[in-house]
């Protein structure tokens, strides 16, 4: 019986040509298939029009026109979305003077979404017959021939970012409570330590000038101003000096 099985095995081997399956080809085939799939995916992402830029969305823009923002972004239609440099697009958008910050996102399969945070005008500055609107950093956001009615007028020698007097005045304006801020008409800052605020009249109280001094202690100074305005002496006063809250004077 043993010899018969051996002869049958030899006969089967001769019938198959003496070849045996080579299991080593299986990993090679799987690797080639994986490479082919990777190449296909890379082509779809980086070279195919299937996932290319077809639309640019803009959110948060009111001061800057959409067309101008899209032009500044420089996003090329037809560019594969995966090849888009979002950091570079964001940097270009943030060069617009109206834009404080921006984010750029890919929205698959073919949309670029740009969300901007615009600069908020805080004061107006008059220069050569034009009114420039400055944000909290002293950056000129926009300009107009007429004074913006809703913004106080800032009077400083050098109204620009980095100027100490400008920065002090802007900080004081930001610190004011809303009930005072909405009556503010002008801010004078000959130096960082000498900020003076001018308020419009309310009721039977006439216009008021407040010598504020340097930034800081805003809540305390605001309470003193409002408490004095509730007294007969305060209502008749045209100037209140709270630059040193420990010694408040009126005149």
Set down the secondary structure blueprint.
Layout: H1 2-15, H2 25-46, E1 55-59, H3 66-73, H4 86-93, E2 99-107, E3 111-118, E4 123-127, E5 130-134, E6 140-144, E7 153-155, H5 164-175, H6 178-181, E8 184-188, E9 195-199, E10 208-213, H7 218-229, H8 232-236, E11 239-241, E12 249-250
Could you walk me through the main structural features you see in this protein, from its secondary elements to its overall organization?
The protein has 251 residues and is an alpha/beta fold. 34% of the residues lie in helices and 24% in strands. It has helices at 2-15, 25-46, 66-73, 86-93, 164-175, 178-181, 218-229, 232-236; strands spanning 55-59, 99-107, 111-118, 123-127, 130-134, 140-144, 153-155, 184-188, 195-199, 208-213, 239-241, 249-250. The strands form 3 sheets. The chain has a 6-stranded mixed sheet with strand order 7-8-9-10-11-12. A 3-stranded mixed sheet has the order 1-3-2. The longest helix has 22 residues, at 25-46. It is elongated, with a radius of gyration of 36 Å.
Please state the structural category: alpha/beta
N-to-C order of helices and strands:
HHEHHEEEEEEHHEEEHHEE
In percent, how helical is the residue content? 25-40%
User: What value does the Rg take, in angstroms?
Assistant: 36 Å
Give the strand order of the largest sheet, numbering strands 1, 2, ... along the chain.
7-8-9-10-11-12
Through-space gap between termini: 130 Å
Number of strands: 12
Percentage of residues in DSSP E strands: 15-25%
Q: Overall pLDDT, averaged?
A: 86
Which sheet architecture does the biggest sheet show? 6 strands, mixed
What ranges have pLDDT less than 50 throughout 5 or more consecutive residues? 39-46
- Inertia-based shape: elongated
């Amino acid at each position: 019986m043993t010899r018969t099985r051996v002869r049958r095995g030899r006969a089967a081997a001769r019938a198959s040509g003496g070849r045996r399956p080579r299991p080593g080809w299986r990993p090679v085939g799987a690797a080639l298939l994986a490479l082919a799939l990777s190449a296909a995916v890379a082509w779809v992402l980086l070279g195919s029009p299937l996932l290319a830029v077809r639309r640019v969305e803009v959110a948060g823009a009111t001061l800057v026109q959409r067309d101008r923002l899209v032009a500044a972004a420089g996003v090329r239609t037809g560019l594969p979305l995966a090849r888009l440099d979002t950091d570079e697009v964001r940097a270009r958008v943030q060069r617009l003077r109206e834009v404080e910050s921006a984010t750029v996102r890919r929205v698959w399969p073919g949309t670029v979404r740009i969300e901007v945070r615009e600069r908020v005008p805080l004061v107006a500055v008059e220069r050569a017959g034009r009114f420039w609107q400055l944000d909290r950093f002293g950056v000129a956001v926009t300009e107009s021939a007429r004074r913006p009615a809703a913004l106080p007028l800032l009077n400083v020698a050098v109204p620009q970012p980095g100027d100490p007097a400008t920065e002090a005045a802007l900080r004081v304006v930001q610190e004011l409570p809303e009930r005072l801020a909405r009556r503010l008409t002008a801010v004078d800052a000959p130096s960082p330590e000498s900020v003076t605020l001018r308020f419009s009249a309310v009721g039977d109280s006439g216009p008021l000038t407040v010598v504020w001094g340097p930034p800081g202690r805003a809540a305390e100074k605001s309470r003193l101003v409002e408490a004095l305005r509730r007294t007969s002496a305060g209502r008749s006063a045209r100037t209140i000096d709270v630059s040193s809250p420990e010694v408040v004077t009126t005149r």
